[in-house]
Amino acid sequence: MERTHRSLRIRRGILLLAAIPVAAWPQAAPDFSGLWKQDNDRCQPKRNGDVTLRIEHRDPELTVETTLTHGSRNPRHAMQKYTTDGEVSVSTGTDGDEFHTAVTRKDASLIFSIEEHEDGRILRSKETWTLIENGVTLKRIRERDDGGKQILIFLRQQ
After folding, report:
1. What confidence tens digit (pLDDT) does each residue in 16-66 have?
2. How many domains does the chain divide into?
3. In angstroms, rounded to a whole number, what is the distance separating the alpha carbons of residues 114 and 102?
4. Would you state the pLDDT for residue 71?
5. Residue 18 lies in a domain
6. Does 22 fall in a domain?
7. Residue 138 belongs to domain with CATH number
C-alpha cells in the first residue's frame, strides 16, 4: 500500500515538474503597430464618422495617434504615449478631456486602466486590446464602471 502511494506521489511530482517549463515559457508579445481604420458596422453599438489610429508599438513604448473625422467638420487629433509596464501616463483626448492611463500586458492582450477627467468628474473604465483574425483586426473592448460596454473593431490598413 505504502509503495502505491509513493509511486503516485512520484508521478504527480514528475507531472508538476514537466508543466513548469511550459507555464514559464515567455509568450510572444503581439505588435500593435500600423495604421488602423475603425469598422463602424462591426462595432457594438455601431458607430459613425471616420476614426483612424496610427500605432507605434515597441515594448514597452506604445504611441497612439487618433484622428477623428465626422461629416464636414475639421478632423480632431490626439496623441497618447504609454508604456506597457503599468506606469500611469497623462494625455489629452480628441474631446479635450484629460486621461490618466496605466497599460499592462496580460497574455497576448494589452489592458488599459483609464481615468477620464471630464468637467470635474472622474470616469473610470478598462479597455482590453486584442489582435484577432490573424492580426489584421484590432478588437478593443471598453468597459465602464457604470456597466456600459462597447466593442470597437479596427482593420489594419496596407
Report:
1. 444 444 444 445 689 999 999 999 999 999 999 999 999 999 999 999 999
2. 1
3. 7
4. 75
5. no
6. no
7. 2.40.128.20
